[in-house]
Design goal:
Chain A: It comes from Brevundimonas olei. The complex is a heterodimer of chains A (about 70) and B (about 150). Chain A has about 70 residues and is mainly alpha-helical. Chain A is about 60% helix and about 5% strand. In chain A, α2 packs across α3. Chain A is globular and about 25 Å long. The longest helix of chain B has about 35 residues.
């Protein structure tokens, strides 16, 4: 069930002092989805990964590390 | 970046407004359904007594309403929520179907009287019971699988 990737979503979110709900609203997804993403139990689709990348102003490979 | 955030929010708001409009439409349709009592014209005699126009309009409107409501509900879900439903539909629904079907067949072969005493013991009633039992088992399987998907990702 755990993803093959490590992600730094929680780190980037904490840097901005956002709650999971804040991030969910900005990405247009539910808070449960953010929780699953942060715990590495759900891999986002490519469009969502790009939205995350744009939101944090970082390349995808800086957020999702293989 | 901000434009995209606004777009996501605006799309969700538009979706909600459409669903609200649909609900208002259904309420209007219900009024028509209850008040239009004239028999439906051009109803084939072979199909028995013609229902009222209101009932036909209401049934057709309800079918369209449910289809559209489902479409907008699905569009409002995010990708993880859709994935949970798809996974639950396949695994929960299919395993429920198999388990429910097997339970009905085993019970029938064992001579268990599945039909309640109040119902007529006809072939049609037995078939209806089988369909209802399998549908219920699918729904239970779906619910369990859906919960399991989200619990595993908490």
């Amino acid at each position: 069930m755990t993803s093959a990737f490590i992600n730094r979503l929680k780190v980037f979110r904490a840097e901005r002092d956002w709650t999971q709900a804040d991030l969910a609203e900005r990405l247009g997804v539910s808070r449960q989805t953010i929780q699953a993403l942060e715990k590495g139990r759900y891999d986002p689709s490519l469009p969502l990964a790009f939205r995350i990348s744009r939101l944090f102003g970082r390349p995808i490979e800086a957020i999702f590390i293989a | 970046m901000n434009t995209e955030i606004i777009t996501v929010g605006a799309a969700a708001a538009r979706n909600k407004k459409t669903m609200d409009d649909l609900t208002v439409g259904l309420c209007a349709l219900t009024v028509v359904g209850v008040s239009a009592t004239a028999a439906t014209p051009f109803w084939p005699e072979a199909w028995g007594r013609a229902p009222s126009i209101g009932v036909v309009v209401l049934a057709a409107g309800l079918a369209v309403f449910l289809a559209l409501h489902t479409l907008y509900w699905w569009r409002a879900l995010d990708e993880a929520a859709r994935e949970a439903h798809k996974w639950a539909w396949w695994w929960g629904g299919n395993l429920g179907l198999v388990a429910g079907g097997a339970a009905v067949v085993i019970a029938a072969l064992a001579g268990v009287n599945l039909l309640p005493a109040a119902l007529p013991h006809t072939d049609a009633a037995l078939i209806a019971l089988g369909v209802a039992a399998v549908f219920a088992a699918q729904a239970v399987g779906y619910g369990i699988a859906w919960c399991g998907w989200w619990i595993a990702r908490r």
